[in-house]
Specification:
Largest sheet of chain B: 6 strands, mixed
Oligomer: heterodimer
Number of helices of chain B: 8
Order of helices and strands of chain A: HHHHHHEHHHHHHHEHHH
Structural class of chain A: mainly alpha
Radius of gyration of chain A: 21 Å
Number of strands of chain A: 2
Number of strands of chain B: 12
Strand content of chain B: 25-35%
Distance between the termini of chain A: 21 Å
CATH topology of one domain in chain B: Rossmann fold
Strand content of chain A: under 5%
Strand order of the largest sheet of chain B: 6-9-10-3-11-12
Shape of chain A: globular
Order of helices and strands of chain B: EEEHEEHEHEEHHEHEHEEH
CATH class of one domain in chain B: Alpha Beta
CATH architecture of one domain in chain B: 3-Layer(aba) Sandwich
Strand order of the largest sheet of chain A: 1-2
Number of helices of chain A: 16
């Protein structure tokens, strides 16, 4: 018997692809606890200034997390994202400083380099059937080396002096624009809820949409009010949110999204259903590396310079940890952009909080490592349980 | 080999296929007429599933020719086979366990609704749900909610999803690879009933099985495969289990046979 109206609304349920994951509520709860813990340890944690700073810190790892999530969804991995972002940052700086290109063309060149890298790595993985783990690990070495060679040993650092490039990380939205960006989607969501069946009275589906709209409006309003006390909403936050919304639309509302999840779930089944498995896989590698290039531009703009450490350190593993903490499965076929963003907020909050407490980078490294470790253990346990239930 | 003077819907000639070092198919000829159930019977490794995958466009033959509706076709991908009206239910069911039943049914052929700039048409969940629910009720296929995850269903339900997915597209040629392997007797009866209904509507059914009782019960024509070749062909009405067993193994079935 098929119950025609007895269905649960909500995208994750409609896809069913995340029914076996832990869901986002525990994540929100963990975030709350972390925020309260750091706040009680250091009263600066939840100040407008630090929240604004956190948003700026979050942008590059957040963008990388979205990219690596797409690759994880098709059952692959990309370990080269940090190195690609570093290389693209130096491409941007060199194109601007040495070739004399203005801001927009330099950025275009940087993104194009990212795209080309992604297409290449994706094509090698798909057509040679090579493990993406090793291909992108060797990519990491190649792009990191290229990054250092490009900067040149003697210079070591290239300053970003172009006002447009500097503005990327230092621009803030005027209050009226922030207001519009919050109110318009909020009003649309409320209207959508009110217009949902039944026209009069309340149904579970209707309450759900209205509830979500309310949660969205409340969160956005509080965030905006806090940020307004310190320059306003950073452009980078808006960029990250826009990319997250775009990822959500693609993965949860388009046929391409179904194909992405299907490939991660069972690539051979997807192929037999007529899905272009090779094409979609390559496209995900290409998108991931292009997003890494965007992150590189963001990093360059934030540091006001590019040096050998840009894109290095724990950036790649932070992004993968954030994706997995956010519910993306390392086994493919499960994950949501919203979760990935919440995961990267969590990782960034922990690192920011440890910074405020004056702890060393080594402690941060241990903390991120432990977070990745626990998330992977949880993911594996959930996967085993799903396997057992079939 | 035309049946009753009609041209068969599908006609396969001289198909050869190597899989690694194994010659899976050697010079296979096969006709599948409309309105008939043609069973391909054989032991494990006889090449049955390979033959099905070639007809469904999943595998490409090394040599040979395929005619569909009296026209020579190249089934270079599952999508091309689907467009001609060929649907397959695979032995492993080819479901994506992480997706809902609904998305499994529409995988590769999703219905699009509202268009938005940059992203194209969005998934029309409600349209798909309505259409699938209506058609499945018509077939009286029993499923839990269409929104449930395919991996959480029982073996019988998964089989039902795989069959429902093939039927929704109203195939002209339906390929079934061991469709009742995971089913209990009641569900097997229901599959048998569906196959009969489709046959009576003029659908060509190709049934792959290693179970000769099933072949005798369900099929109109039986083709026996052995070691990648077609060993013999029978009319289902004019053969008994004994003869079939001999044809499958290639050996006389023992002393009890009357001379």
């Amino acid at each position: 018997m098929i119950s025609r109206r007895g269905r649960k609304l909500g995208i994750s349920n409609r896809f069913a692809a995340n029914a076996g994951s832990a869901g986002l509520l525990p994540l929100c709860f963990a975030l709350l606890i972390i925020a309260l813990a750091f706040q009680s340890a250091n009263a600066n944690f939840l100040t407008a200034r630090n929240v604004s700073n956190l948003c700026l810190q979050l942008a590059a790892p957040g963008i990388l997390t979205l990219g690596v999530m797409l690759v994880l969804l098709v059952g692959e991995i990309d370990l080269s994202i940090g190195a690609v972002s570093g290389l693209c940052a130096s491409v941007l700086a060199v194109a601007h400083a040495h070739l004399g290109l203005s801001a927009a063309p330099s950025m275009a060149v940087a993104l194009l380099v990212g795209l080309t890298i992604g297409l290449t790595q994706g094509a090698v993985v798909v057509f040679l059937r090579a493990p993406s783990f090793i291909i992108t690990l060797s990519g990491l070495l190649v792009w990191m080396g290229a990054h250092h060679i490009l900067l040149g040993e003697k210079i070591g650092e290239l300053e970003i002096d172009d006002p447009t490039l500097r503005a990327i990380a230092s621009a803030f939205l005027p209050s009226w624009l922030t207001g519009l960006l919050i109110v318009i989607p909020g009003a649309a969501a409320l209207f959508h809820g009110v217009a949902a069946e039944p026209r009069f009275g309340l149904s579970a589906a209707k309450l759900r949409i209205l509830g979500r709209a309310a949660v969205y409006l409340l969160t956005a309003a509080v965030a905006a009010l806090v940020l307004e006390q310190h320059h306003g909403a950073p452009f980078l936050l808006v960029l990250l949110i826009a990319l997250a919304v775009a990822s959500t639309i693609v993965t949860e509302h388009t046929p391409l999204g179904v194909h992405i999840l299907a490939i991660g779930g069972n690539a051979e089944s997807a192929r037999r259903a007529g899905v272009s498995v090779a094409g979609v896989r390559i496209a995900m590698f290409a998108t991931c590396s292009t997003l890494a290039a965007v992150a590189g531009v963001v990093l360059a703009s934030r540091q006001l310079a590019v040096d050998a450490t840009t894109g290095g350190g724990s950036l790649t593993l932070d992004a993968i940890a954030a994706a997995v903490i956010g519910g993306t499965s390392l086994f493919g076929g499960r994950g949501r952009a919203l979760g990935a963003i919440l995961g990267s907020v969590l990782v960034a909050s922990v690192e920011n909080g440890l910074d405020l407490l004056g702890l060393s980078g080594d402690v941060k490294s241990v903390a991120t490592g432990l977070m990745l470790f626990s998330a992977v253990c949880l993911d594996t346990l959930l996967q085993r349980r799903r396997g057992a239930s079939v | 080999m035309a049946v009753n003077g009609e041209r068969p819907l599908l006609s396969v000639r001289g198909i050869c296929k190597r899989l690694g070092h194994v010659e899976a198919l050697r010079e296979v000829d096969l006709d599948v007429p409309s309105g008939r159930v043609t069973a391909v019977l054989g032991d494990n490794g006889a090449g049955k599933s390979t033959l099905l995958k070639i007809i469904s466009g999943v595998l490409q033959p090394d040599a040979g020719e395929i005619q569909f509706d009296s026209r020579r076709v190249r089934l270079s991908s599952p999508r091309i086979a689907n467009k001609l009206g060929i649907e397959a239910v695979y032995q492993d069911l080819a479901l994506c366990d992480n997706l809902s039943v609904l998305l499994n049914i529409y995988l590769g052929r999703e219905r699009r609704g509202a268009r938005i700039p940059l992203f194209g048409g969005l998934l029309a969940f409600d349209v798909m749900h309505e259409e699938a629910a209506r058609y499945l009720a018509e077939l009286s296929v029993e499923l839990p909610s269409l929104w449930s995850e395919a991996g959480r269903l029982s073996g019988g339900q998964r089989q039902a999803v795989a069959i429902a997915r093939a039927l929704l597209w109203r195939p002209r040629l339906l390929l079934l690879d061991e469709p009742t392997a995971a089913l209990g007797s009641k569900q097997t009866d229901s599959v048998r009933r569906i196959i009969r209904t489709l046959r009576d509507q003029g659908v060509a059914v190709l049934l792959i099985t290693h179970n000769f009782t099933q072949a005798i019960h369900m099929a109109d024509r039986i083709v026996v495969m052995r070691h990648g070749r077609i060993a013999s062909r029978f009319d289902a009405g004019q053969i008994d289990a004994q003869q079939l067993l001999e044809a499958i193994t290639g050996e006389p079935a023992g002393d009890c046979r009357t001379p």
